[in-house]
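job 3f2a | input accepted
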Amino acid sequence: MTNPEQPPAPLPPVPAPPYQPYPLSGGQPPAYPAPYAPPVDPRYGQLIQAPAPKQRSGLGVVALILALAAAVAATAVLAIASFQIGAGIGPRIETLAARPGELGFLTPVREWVLAAEIAFWTGTVLGIASLILGIVATVKRRGRGAGIAAIVFSAIGPLLAGGAVIVAASLGAATTIPLS
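job 3f2a | predicted structure (180 res):
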């Protein structure tokens, strides 16, 4: 037992590491002794995050291609079919008012009516798909410029198609009506 009045025995001194001078020719510094701890810096504890990868613009480009197909290709087919329908029913345009509600007058141009209907519904589906994809591309920044252009073309497409149908059917009917 130790006497409380006696001070505790001093601990033996820690031996100093052996002297290792740096070589004068610019060599490596000496190795640290085993109980070495690296310096503590708050930056070492932070997670290193890689920069966000650049978003691809494929979605906006796909939306733009669909919008152009709806606004240009479907409208062109619809205009050609409307011109042929107008040219086919032009000579009988006076008799249309006599039988309202009947669609029998379209029988001679039924192939063009079918082509116009297919072009209309194809343009509608492509326009709606391009509008949705354009909005998604714009929001997610995956081809924002092309996405905005797709939104604009999908909004203008029905106006172009409607105008093309009116003008083409009128021109088709005007080419076959005899001038008196």
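job 3f2a | The longest helix spans residues 144-176.
job 3f2a | closed
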